[in-house]
Specification:
With about 325 residues, the protein is α/β, with parallel strands linked by helices. The protein folds into two domains: about 210 residues, Vaccinia Virus protein VP39 (Rossmann fold, 3-Layer(aba) Sandwich); about 100 residues, Putative methyltransferase TM0872, insert domain (DNA polymerase, domain 1, Orthogonal Bundle). It has a seven-stranded mixed beta sheet, with helices on both faces. The longest helix is centred in the C-terminal third of the chain and has 15 residues. It is globular and about 60 Å long. It is found in: Cytoplasm. Specifically methylates the N4 position of cytidine in position 1402 (C1402) of 16S rRNA. This is Ribosomal RNA small subunit methyltransferase H. Keywords: Cytoplasm, Methyltransferase, rRNA processing, S-adenosyl-L-methionine, Transferase. Belongs to the methyltransferase superfamily. RsmH family.
């Protein structure tokens, strides 16, 4: 949904925009082509440097990559003397580039080490499946993969690792396939892989921190565009924007309005609900079929307290 993201951010000459999930540089390149703006890319994956070099060479003086997490974008930009920006783009989740690299361990269609880290630090998916107890594994797979057979999958993992450590993606796929029925077009391991990837990379926590950081960074009239790919992500984005746009979420209609803390809206929605990819894009790029874009414009109101996002947990 690159075209829709660029349209939402409406780059203008002289503006500073943030591509918080740089990846292979698709959004950054499109934003730079749309106007004589500057783009700051952020990515925790050290393998993206070659893509950053290419974008920088094609746009001298207008692009810079910062190594780190987009959840820390306010601190990362403050360190280079930028306190406010005109737009922030976020494309949540694993990138096609990472999925296509078998040695990263994201893909259930290729055999590789069971890693799934977006950076080169922290515990791997193999660490989780080989050390967490059955109950915790079941919770992870159910909560973050929305897998109805989570208990059976966890039980199968624990039984399999007694025989030998689970270190390869193919091993895990075969274990899950024993207890999850295949459905047309969906690999039985899809939801289990999603759950492990989310936990390994703290993706939902990172998303919440990124939304709060963007709220702090964006100038009045600045735009935020977020593309998500599954319901857990979209729920966090929707909750954040609903709250920041003044819609009371999670409050009881039986309580007096005075009991709900009144804050000036810090965002205005650019369009109602989420935009979906066009039929043409979904056909050309099947991975985009589940994408949802939500976008909003910053008001002049102060940023809300950070702890407000705990309600989205």
């Amino acid at each position: 949904m690159c075209g829709e993201v660029v349209a939402a951010l409406t780059p203008r000459a002289g503006e500073v925009l943030v591509d918080g999930t740089f990846g292979a540089g698709g959004y950054s390149s499109a934003l730079l082509a749309a106007a004589e703006c500057q783009v700051i890319g952020i990515d925790r994956d050290p393998t993206v440097q070659a893509h950053a070099d290419r974008v920088s060479a094609a746009n001298p003086g207008r692009f810079r990559l910062l190594a780190g997490r987009f959840g820390d974008m306010d601190m990362l930009l403050n360190e280079i003397g930028i306190q406010g920006v005109d737009g922030v783009a976020l494309d949540i989740g694993v990138s096609s580039m990472q999925i296509d690299q078998a040695d990263r361990g994201f893909s259930f269609q290729q055999d590789g080490p069971l890693d799934m880290r977006m950076s080169d630090q922290g515990e791997t998916a193999a660490d989780i499946v080989n050390t967490r107890d059955e109950a915790e594994l079941a919770d992870i797979i159910y909560l973050y993969g929305e897998e109805r057979r989570a208990r059976a999958v966890a039980r199968a993992i624990v039984a399999a690792r007694i025989e030998a450590p689970i270190t390869r993606t193919r091993q895990l796929v075969q274990i899950v396939a024993r207890v999850v029925r295949a459905t047309p077009g969906i690999n039985p391991a899809t939801r289990t892989f999603q759950a492990l990837r989310i936990v390994v990379n703290d993706e939902l926590g990172e998303l919440r921190r990124g939304l709060v950081a963007a709220e702090k960074l964006l100038k009045p009239e600045g735009r935020l565009a977020v593309v998500s790919f599954h319901s857990l992500e979209d729920r966090v984005v929707k909750h954040f924007l609903d709250r920041r746009c003044g819609k009371q979420t999670g409050s009881s209609r039986h309580l007096p309005q005075a009991t709900v803390a009144a804050r000036a809206p810090s965002f205005e929605l650019l369009h109602k609900g989420a935009l979906a990819p066009t039929d043409a894009e979904a056909a050309a790029n099947p991975r985009a079929r589940s994408a949802k874009l939500r976008a909003a414009k910053r008001t002049a109101a102060p940023a809300w307290p950070d702890d407000d996002m705990r309600e989205a947990a």
